Amino acid sequence: MVDNQINHKNGLRMKIRDLDFYYDNQQILKKVNLNIEKNMITAIIGPSGCGKSTLIRTLNRMNDIIPSAKIKGDILLDNENIYSNGLDVIEIRKKVGMVFQKPNPFPKSIFENVAYGLKINGFSKDRNRLMERVQESLEAAALWEEVKDRLNTSAFDLSGGQQQRLCIARTLAIKPEIILFDEPCSALDPIATSKIEELMIKLKEYYTIIIVTHNMQQAARISDYTAFLMMGELIEFDETERLFTRPRQKITEDYITGRFG
User: Fold this and answer.
1) Alpha-carbon distance 29 to 97, whole Å?
2) Is residue 95 within 8 Å of 76, Cβ to Cβ?
3) What is the pLDDT of residue 261?
4) pLDDT in tens, 142-189
5) 44 pLDDT exceeds 70?
6) What's the order of all strands across the beta sheet hosting 233-239?
7) Least C-beta-crowded within 10 Å: which of 7, 178, 235, 257?
8) Within 13 Å, how many C-alpha atoms sit on residue 57's CB side?
């Protein structure tokens, strides 16, 4: 294992074992082995096209919607393989929520954006109970104070950074256990990026977080562990401080110092 020298203090939430991933006959991921610790932020870095987004999308079976996708290996959530036959994909996606690269609010009000997942998952139709959960989710996403007086206005009236926090609130509303962030700040300005980063650091008290980022400074600022991918292979995985200051592999050092990528 790449991380067999790491002491995972909180215990493991996910285990990725010998993961191969293909689009048709093109292999994107090659024998990836990775441990994800509970209530920590794990960053996945690497040059464009190395398989970062493909990897994170395997963790809640988002790649299932691609007909040509084929996967080998195991992804264990609490020691249960999420690719086992008969497993309910909807239940997996409830446990493993996702925030995408660009904010993708629905063409609905702020309130209805957050309530949407609750409604389709059979949460109470009682407006007061819905309101409580919506408020709780917006507070957790550090957005409530900014929008509490305009919940019935369109989500498209929000700024880009606010829209991304709204999408985070929408994810939090269904109470996942793990949250995947696929380059969540790439479309945001530095101030909005800072707010999202602060939010993720607070959220790890309650959630396990995995973030794909092309921004190595971001990975260094917010993550506890960092995985470096190159051409579909996991080159190095370690505690973030150690990986950025004392990488074991020369190719890792070359990448984080800007010699390529």
Assistant:
1) 22
2) no
3) 57
4) 999 999 999 999 999 999 999 999 999 999 999 999 999 999 999 899
5) yes
6) 96-99, 178-182, 208-212, 41-45, 225-230, 233-239
7) 7
8) 20
